[in-house]
């Protein structure tokens, strides 16, 4: 059942609360990019992907698949997996603890439901997503494969290898999207290792390129619809979502300093106050 | 000693090609990927028979490993092929993350391994690949010795569920094992029984070890020859049993001194059955251009060097 934009807004607020509480409890993790991609992934998990946690298997048979190539966005990924029913939300409290299924970066060895493949060593997830998309084509499945990339991650050469591969093999069932928050660990992407015209680059690679606002559900919905409409064109789609690192909390927004830093308890308290409580409740 | 007849020199990579075709016929989930080396990897017959299951990746090995992992997730059994250096060292992290940590059912088909790649020189000759692949948790490492064994090992790799590193070579070499002998992963093969020294070999050095055993026999020395076609998991029991019987060991491999079969066997013996061991390997150096046979001799990997090492080992008993 698709959620209204109002309902999605509530979920996204709760997901941001989850991210901050998880990372604060773990005293480490990556809140900045998790918060910039929260709205996109909330839409993806609740309104876009055809998936059923109850019947999910790692093979992805008969369902859409999602690969977070930027694996450090584990907090938002875990929150959404839990909030859509892959595992109890209470398990979010175990992030980064020894023995937890919620490893610092996504992994499959402890069999966390919903996770297809480890990620975190950047630049590799898009290739894996392309492989799953190709496998689905070979099996004549009509499901889509979604893949989240970071803009900083797009400095990895393998992203562009996968870009060529997906076009050459006509993977129009592959919908990749970039959390274009213009920040990476060492600073603004523009200053660290500027990517140039990202849209022109993906267009030159032969992809169906869509630019959208990653914090506006209407814009996100339209972008995904356009991407899905690319099925049959033979072209994979790349949605470049303009976002803001740390979005939703004023002192975290727009700075690379929150890429991989956990809020202290007093900062968490202030952040949660800004976000406000939701009817969904904390884990 | 037991006689082995060379039925005609042929490259082990052709054994891979033949095995891949047979595995593809037996199971329609088998797919093959290459990075612009279809011909070199002898994938032509598979590609012709199953064009929809052959995936050309172009010269982009990193993406090829990731795409193979994705295909494996959907239930395919992908064999990814390139030169040994380019499917190990070049893509070590991709194999680590996507294949081993992800525990995907990907088979790394590694051709032109070792110094016998020959004339192309050290840029293309990996002598480090066994070490890299052995170090990865969950990786099975197979290094068959001739065409027949490579074909059977390929069929066995397709049936085994999990990551496999399958290493073979470029040059035409003697083909002497039983073509009908099924390959058992993890099992050492005693090629010749002896009592004075154990010669442990893998890949191209197995034929050399048999040659050494023959030369030693002429001098009254009885050498046991063991083919370690599976380097990981290692058949420790077979190694220990033979070392206990003969009292000394030689390990011969077309690899450098670090992390390969030499150190694997030394580790087993040190822990379970300390005996004198001599090593026949490429040492601590890169290769160079040359013919395969000239390089095997120059780098001390051929039968005369193995025989010499055997005498040294016996003298240390």
Task: Briefly summarize what is shown.
The complex is a heterodimer of chains A (283) and B (317). With 283 residues, chain A is of the alpha/beta class.
List the helices and strands and how they pair.
The complex is a heterodimer of chains A (283) and B (317).
Chain A: H1 5-26, H2 31-36, H3 38-48, E1 65-68, H4 74-83, H5 125-138, E2 145-150, H6 157-168, E3 174-180, E4 183-184, E5 187-188, H7 189-193, H8 198-204, E6 208-213, H9 217-229, E7 237-242, H10 265-275
Parallel strand pairs in A: 1-2, 2-3, 3-7, 6-7
Antiparallel strand pairs in A: 4-5
Helix pairs in contact in A: 1-3, 1-4, 1-10, 3-4, 3-9, 5-6
Chain B: E1 10-11, H1 12-26, E2 30-34, H2 44-49, E3 54-56, H3 61-73, E4 77-83, H4 92-101, E5 107-111, H5 129-134, E6 140-142, H6 147-159, E7 164-167, E8 172-173, E9 189-192, E10 197-201, H7 205-218, E11 223-227, E12 230-232, H8 236-246, E13 249-252, H9 261-272, E14 277-280, H10 292-298, H11 303-315
Parallel strand pairs in B: 2-3, 2-4, 4-5, 5-7, 6-7, 10-11, 10-13, 13-14
Antiparallel strand pairs in B: 1-8, 6-12, 9-11
Helix pairs in contact in B: 1-6, 3-4, 7-11, 8-9
What labels would you give this structure?
heterodimer; A: 283 residues; alpha/beta; Rossmann fold; 5-stranded parallel β-sheet; two-stranded antiparallel sheet; 10 helices; B: 317 residues; 7-stranded mixed β-sheet; 5-stranded mixed β-sheet; 11 helices; 14 strands; 38% helix; 18% strand
């Amino acid at each position: 059942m698709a959620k209204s934009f109002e309902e999605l807004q509530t979920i996204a607020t709760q997901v941001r609360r989850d991210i901050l509480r998880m990372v604060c409890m773990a005293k480490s993790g990556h809140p900045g990019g998790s918060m910039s991609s929260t709205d996109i992934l909330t839409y993806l998990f609740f309104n876009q992907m055809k998936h059923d946690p109850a019947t999910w298997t790692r093979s992805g048979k008969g369902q859409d698949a999602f690969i977070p190539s930027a694996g450090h966005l584990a907090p938002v990924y875990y929150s959404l997996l839990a909030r859509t029913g892959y595992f109890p939300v209470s398990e979010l409290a175990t992030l980064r603890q020894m023995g937890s299924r919620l490893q610092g970066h996504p992994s499959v060895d402890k069999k966390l439901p919903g996770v297809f493949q480890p990620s975190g060593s950047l630049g590799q997830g898009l290739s894996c997503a392309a492989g799953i998309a190709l496998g689905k084509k070979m099996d004549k499945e009509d499901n889509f494969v979604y893949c989240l990339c970071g803009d900083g991650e797009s400095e990895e050469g393998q992203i562009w290898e996968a870009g060529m591969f997906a076009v050459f093999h006509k993977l129009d069932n592959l919908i990749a999207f970039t959390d274009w928050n213009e920040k990476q660990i060492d600073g603004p992407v523009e200053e660290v290792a500027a990517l140039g015209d990202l849209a022109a680059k993906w267009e030159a690679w032969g992809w169906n390129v869509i630019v959208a606002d990653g914090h506006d559900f209407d814009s996100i919905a339209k972008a995904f619809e356009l991407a899905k409409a690319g099925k049959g064109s033979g072209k994979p789609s790349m949605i470049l979502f303009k976002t803001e690192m740390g979005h939703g909390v004023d002192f975290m927004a727009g700075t690379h300093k929150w890429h991989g830093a956990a809020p202290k308890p007093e900062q968490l308290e202030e952040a949660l106050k800004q976000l406000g409580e939701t009817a969904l409740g904390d884990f | 000693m037991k006689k082995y007849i060379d039925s005609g020199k042929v490259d082990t990579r052709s054994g891979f090609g033949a095995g891949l075709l047979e595995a593809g016929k037996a199971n329609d989930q088998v797919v093959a990927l290459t990075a612009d080396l279809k011909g070199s990897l002898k994938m032509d017959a598979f590609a012709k028979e199953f064009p929809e299951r052959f995936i050309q990746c172009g010269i982009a090995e990193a993406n090829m490993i990731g795409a193979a992992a994705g295909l494996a997730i959907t239930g395919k059994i992908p064999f990814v092929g390139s030169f040994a250096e380019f499917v190990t060292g070049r893509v070590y992290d991709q194999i680590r993350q996507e294949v081993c940590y992800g525990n995907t059912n990907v088979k790394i088909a590694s051709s032109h391994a070792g110094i016998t790649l020959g004339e192309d020189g050290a840029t293309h000759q990996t002598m480090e690949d066994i070490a890299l692949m052995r170090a990865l948790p969950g990786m099975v490492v197979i290094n068959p010795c001739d065409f027949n064994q490579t074909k059977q090992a390929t069929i066995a790799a397709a049936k085994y569920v999990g990551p496999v590193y399958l290493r073979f070579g470029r040059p035409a070499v003697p083909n002497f094992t039983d073509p009908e002998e099924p390959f058992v992963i993890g099992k050492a093969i005693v090629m010749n029984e002896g009592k004075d020294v154990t010669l442990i070999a893998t890949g191209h050095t197995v034929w050399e070890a048999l040659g050494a055993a023959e030369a030693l026999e002429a001098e009254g020395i009885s050498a046991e020859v063991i083919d370690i076609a599976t380097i990981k998991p290692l058949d420790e029991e077979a190694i220990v049993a033979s070392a206990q019987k003969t009292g000394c060991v030689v390990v011969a491999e077309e690899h450098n001194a670090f992390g390969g079969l030499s150190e694997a066997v030394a580790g087993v013996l040190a822990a379970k059955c300390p005996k004198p061991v001599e090593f026949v390997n490429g040492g601590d150096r890169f290769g160079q251009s040359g013919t395969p046979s000239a390089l095997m001799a120059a780098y001390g990997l051929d039968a005369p060097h193995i025989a010499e090492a055997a005498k040294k080992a016996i003298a240390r008993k």
